[in-house]
Every structure is written in C-alpha cells, then in structure tokens.
Specification:
Blueprint: H1 2-17, E1 38-41, E2 59-61, E3 80-84, E4 90-99, E5 106-116, E6 121-128, H2 136-139, E7 143-147, E8 151-161, E9 167-176, E10 183-194, H3 201-230
Antiparallel strand pairs: 1-4, 2-3, 3-10, 4-9, 5-8, 5-10, 6-7, 6-9
C-alpha cells in the first residue's frame, strides 16, 4: 500500500514538472534560413516623416555581416540578423503567428544583440495579442528593445502574455530612421511555451501527510484487531 501511494505522489510531481511543448518553428534558426517565419516591412520608411528621401530594405542574413556579436550565436552555428546598410532608412523584420488557448499564460524567451551608430537605430522583439499588424508593433507593451548609438553583447529577454484571442504573434523589428551609418539586430534561441502549472508543494505535502496518516490508522486498527484475537 505504501509503495502504491509513493508511486502516485511521484507521478503527480513528474506530470507537473514536465517541460511544455515548444510552439515556435525554427526559433533557434539552426536551419540556416528563416523557415517558419514571414518577412514584413514598412516601405518606404523615414523616421523623420515625409517626404521619404532614401528608402531601402531590411536585409535578412544568416549569419550577418554588420556588428557581429561575440560569440556570433548563443548556441549552435546560426543566429538571425536583420541589417540595414548606410545611406538608407528602413523598418522591417520577421513574424510568426501561433495558435494558443485563450486566457492561458505563455512565455516568450530568447537572446538579442544590437549594433547601431545613431539615435534613430533600434531593434525590437515583442508579442502581439492577435494576428500580425505592424501598426501595433509601435503600441504593444509586450516588447524589449535596444537602440541608439551603441554596440551590445547578447542580452537575454523574457516576455509573458495572457492572450485574449486564440492567436498571438511573435515578431522582430529593426529600423534605421536616418540615412546615416548602419544598424543590425541579432536574435537567437527563441522559445514560446505555455507557462507550466506551478508545482503545488503545499497541496502535495498535505496529500502525502493525509495518505500516510490513513496508512498509520489502518496499521493501528490491524494491530488492535490482532491483539484482541490473542485474548
């Protein structure tokens, strides 16, 4: 009986702590390309407003050539790069829509790095509550960014969302607002998973204590019955 109870408790613990399934396709970019992702851009783009003088495009490169961080990938061989060459303004990136369960928390994690040489340079990762809409990339609070005249090493990020719709969108963005210098956003090891249910240690402990108490009572009852039989 005791062995059965211990197996039950262990099984409950294992089920609670099993890792949740990965929801993103090619989040580590180890395919060497952007399989699973879709390209987007706002073109023509100029952060200073109209008229747009020197529009260009965000180039997707695996691996990139501008502002390579050290190491060039956080694991494996490849990392995503979104880069913009000099003398052009651009805004764009990648996105991936994922089916989810409404009102269930999800966590988006990964790494990002950045190269910029002007205040108008920025790179972003974020989540939209719903299908892709580039206009919402400006307003969503579920995002992390690095920008300005700076060169950053790899930075780990973590974003959580409780969706109100059955689709959420993970997106990246790199932009250069002025025709000056270069900009590049680097990304690696993206992961999107449902938040695991917290292990209810207190409840498990109470369950274990209750089961052991019942086992003890059963043993005492059996001992009393054996004693009465002797007399």
């Amino acid at each position: 009986m005791r062995h059965i109870l211990l197996i039950l408790i262990f099984s409950l613990f294992v089920l609670r702590t099993l890792p949740a399934a990965e929801l993103l396709k090619n989040g580590d970019f180890e395919t060497g390309d952007v399989t699973g992702w879709k390209y987007w851009e706002t073109y023509p783009w100029d952060g200073d407003g109209a008229p747009v003088e020197s529009p260009t495009h965000v180039t997707i490169a695996i691996p990139g050539t501008i502002g390579t961080p050290v190491p060039p990938a956080t694991s494996g061989f490849f990392a995503l790069t979104q880069q913009i060459g000099h003398n052009g303004t651009a805004r764009g990136g990648l996105y991936q829509e994922v089916k989810v369960v409404v009102n269930t928390p999800y966590i988006f994690t990964g790494y990002m790095a950045f190269y910029g040489d002007d205040i108008g340079d920025v790179t972003i990762v974020g989540i939209l509550d719903g299908s892709w809409n580039p206009a919402l990339a400006f307003t969503t609070i579920n995002k992390k960014y690095i920008g300005g005249n700076t060169i950053s090493s790899w930075m780990e990020f973590s974003l959580m969302i409780i969706p109100s719709k059955d689709v959420i969108t993970v997106f990246t963005e790199t932009r250069q607002d002025w025709t000056h210098g270069d900009a590049a956003g680097w990304f690696d090891n993206f992961s999107l998973r449902p938040v695991p249910e917290p292990t209810k240690l207190l409840s498990s402990q109470h369950l274990k204590e209750n089961l052991l108490q019942k086992e003890k009572q059963a043993q005492e009852k059996q001992t009393k019955a054996d004693t009465e039989k002797r007399f």
